[in-house]
Amino acid sequence: MNSLLGTGVAIVTPFKANLEIDVEALRKVIDYCIGGGVEYLVSLGTTSEKPTLSKEEQELINQTVTKHNGGRVPLVIGIGGNNTKAVIEKLNTVDISGFSAILSVTPSYNRPTQKGLYKHFEQVALSSPLPIILYNVPSRTGCSLLPETVLELASKFDNIVAIKEATGKIEIGMKILRDKPKDFMLISGDDTMSLPLTLSGGSGAISVIANGLPRAFSDMIRLALERKVDSAYSIQYKLLELMSQIFEEGNPAGVKALLEIMGICSSKVRLPLAEASDHLKIKIKKELCSIKS
């Protein structure tokens, strides 16, 4: 899965003032990210506000992404949930033509044991027509895939090819990197941890900030993969403050504020999320000016 090496972007869902999907702005985000040099795009990830999107809206987003991408970069689709049977049904019914892999998040709210998590992803692996990227983000789901479970899944199922690791704990990623099968990939799901995890042997990142700063972030990851450490860290330190700011009031409120400041799409989000405050927008705009100066 060399197509997953480097920077992927968990793309936002732009909304109009009436909170309908802004298809034209979505096309603009896609062009901006690809033009910025990212290696692949992720549709219907966490940053897309997927829980607030209807089935029809999700189909519209996937159709827009695949059609407008036009084969320029590989695509990953998010298919996960806390009802294993429903996830399997989605895998069998959602149109995944044009996508290279599936990103499947750990079940939220149920708080399954490691055995339950293993059995869940076992069924996903047995049903998926595409390679699978596990997605571990305990701050959102309330459960965490332990390294032992990740390694067991990676060893047992050839179509489980990677994990998006978003615990924010470097030791978790390092344990996986130390013991993983040769071709299994660790992808950072935390912008601030992406550089150290890549330098530890990871394969890059699925990024949020790359929606707004695709060139800088993807350059940083490529430098890390080339082991040009000092140059990579010079970009990390330049982006560090903004990486934190865009999460101060939740994701994707912060990165949408950044995109609005840059004239790419509006900062509108759907409830229960709230739009970034004017105070945060001022901070982001000031930091963006500092980065560009």
TrEMBL record:
Q: Which residues form a coiled coil?
A: none
Q: Which residues bind pyruvate?
A: T47, I206
Could you give a single Gene Ontology term from the biological process aspect? diaminopimelate biosynthetic process
Which CDD domains does its entry note? DHDPS (cd00950)
Checking InterPro entries in the record gives: Aldolase_TIM, DapA, DapA-like, Schiff_base-form_aldolases_AS
Active site annotation, chain numbering: Y135, K164
**Which EC numbers does the record give?**
4.1.3.16, 4.3.3.7
Q: Which top-level enzyme class is recorded in the Swiss-Prot or TrEMBL entry? A: lyase
Q: Its catalytic activity?
A: (4R)-4-hydroxy-2-oxoglutarate = glyoxylate + pyruvate; (4S)-4-hydroxy-2-oxoglutarate = glyoxylate + pyruvate; L-aspartate 4-semialdehyde + pyruvate = (2S,4S)-4-hydroxy-2,3,4,5-tetrahydrodipicolinate + H2O + H(+)
Supply the alphabetized keyword list: Amino-acid biosynthesis, Cytoplasm, Diaminopimelate biosynthesis, Lyase, Lysine biosynthesis, Schiff base
- Pfam families reported in the protein's UniProt record: DHDPS
SMART domains the UniProt entry points to: DHDPS
Which superkingdom is the protein from?
Answer: Eukaryota
| CC terms in the record's Gene Ontology section | cytosol
According to the UniProt entry, its GO molecular function terms are: (R,S)-4-hydroxy-2-oxoglutarate aldolase activity; 4-hydroxy-tetrahydrodipicolinate synthase activity
**Pathway(s) served:** Amino-acid biosynthesis; L-lysine biosynthesis via DAP pathway; (S)-tetrahydrodipicolinate from L-aspartate: step 3/4
Any idea what job this protein has? Catalyzes the condensation of (S)-aspartate-beta-semialdehyde [(S)-ASA] and pyruvate to 4-hydroxy-tetrahydrodipicolinate (HTPA).
**Family listed:** Belongs to the DapA family.
Q: Which HAMAP family match?
A: DapA
Q: How does it assemble?
A: Homotetramer.
| Protein's recorded name | 4-hydroxy-2-oxoglutarate aldolase, mitochondrial
Taxonomic source organism: Elysia marginata
